[in-house]
Design a protein that fits this description.
Blueprint (H helix, E strand, L loop, with lengths): L8 E8 L2 H11 L3 E8 L2 E10 L8 E6 L12 E9 L4 H10 L4 E7 L2 E7 L5 E6 L11 E7 L3 H11 L3 E8 L2 E7 L8 E7 L11 E9 L2 H13 L8 E2 L3 E7 L5 E9 L24 H7 L8
Parallel strand pairs: 1-4, 5-8, 9-12, 13-16
Antiparallel strand pairs: 1-13, 2-3, 3-4, 5-9, 6-7, 7-8, 10-11, 11-12, 14-15, 15-16
Bound molecules: zinc ion (ZN).
The site of zinc ion has 7 residues, from strand 1, strand 13 and strand 16.
Length: 307
């Protein structure tokens, strides 16, 4: 049985420039774990890198397609424009000291819906927000807090999220010409917040390094995913068939504002082809590419991961 709402974000996938600078920022500066080192299943001569918490839990996963020669992109209407990590209770000051010690620039402190946050730029200039939350964990970050979607018109996307996905409206504010609507999935799962923004200023986005490719929501089981597929169809959204992504099953569709949405299953998870202890250390390939592993390993640049 499908619960009446999506629990939250499963993963976010973005585009980056050279892989090593991406690894350095997310494993070094942000202290995330590289939980899977694999290839772009549609272009196996490029990496697909997954960062997350120690176990690679849904709601903590940020993935990148690094292209050494990717041109810079910029977010605009019809694109996801930022992701935010949840800073556990009491660790916000620690983060600012840590970034200061490492001479990492950040903007802020700002406040949004009563929560303090700062904004960093990753190696490709993508905004990464760290938001102070009430969550408690030993980790320095507790996965995603939210994703921001930049829309020309907020209403149709808000309707999809509330009526089909079961999100609830939690607040509305306009700051410096940017209107922001906050939607929250019931429950307290990681990444259960979606912010929709609309800007007064005309702007056109361009996909490229430093931009988000798609946003994946969670289905706890394959059966739940099939139910979401039916439910979306009843709301007029036809998804792709179920696609096997090795670590989850995926369906995709474009939301009314143009952002590519995915619904990804929790199972089988990232420990399906290597133990949790050594996640991300070896290059993992799906079965169809094992026969050409030598060729793939020759063209991929070696990566050094911060320990
Ligand atoms: Zn995805």
């Amino acid at each position: 049985m499908t619960k009446n709402s999506i629990p939250g974000i499963h993963h976010v996938t973005a585009i980056s420039g050279p892989a090593q600078a991406n690894v350095d920022f997310y494993t070094g500066t942000l202290k995330q774990r590289l939980v899977k080192k694999t290839v772009n299943f549609d272009a196996p001569d490029t990496y697909h890198l997954y960062y997350g918490d120690r176990k690679g839990s849904p709601g903590t996963i940020l993935t990148f397609f690094p292209f050494a020669d990717a041109g810079p992109g910029r977010a605009g209407p019809g694109m996801a424009s930022a992701y935010a990590y949840a800073v556990p209770k009491g660790k916000f000051t620690e983060w600012m000291e840590r970034l200061g010690d490492a001479a990492v620039d950040f903007a802020g402190i700002d406040e949004r819906f009563g929560q303090q946050y700062i904004t960093l730029r990753d190696a490709d200039g993508a905004p990464v927000e760290l938001i102070e939350t009430d969550r408690t964990t030993e980790d320095l970050l507790d996965g995603f807090h939210s994703v921001t979607l930049w829309e020309r018109d907020i209403a149709p996307t808000a309707r999809l999220l509330t009526d089909a996905f079961g999100y609830e409206e939690r607040g509305h504010e306009t700051l410096r010409g940017v209107e922001r609507l906050r939607l929250v999935a019931p429950g307290d799962e990681r990444g259960n917040v979606i912010d929709l923004i609309r800007s007064e200023k005309p702007s056109i986005g361009r996909s490229g390094a430093g931009t988000i490719h798609h946003v994946a929501f969670r289905a706890r089981t394959n059966e739940e995913q099939r139910d979401w597929q039916d439910r979306l169809l009843s709301f007029g959204h036809r998804t792709t068939p179920v696609i096997d992504r090795q670590y989850f099953n995926a369906i995709y569709f474009r939301e009314p504002g143009g952002v590519l949405f995915e619904i990804a299953t929790d199972p089988p998870g990232f420990a399906v082809d290597e133990p949790v202890r050594t996640l991300g250390q070896a290059l993992k390939l799906p079965p169809q590419y094992e026969p050409i592993r030598d060729r793939i390993e020759r063209v991929l640049p070696p990566l050094k991961v911060a320990s």
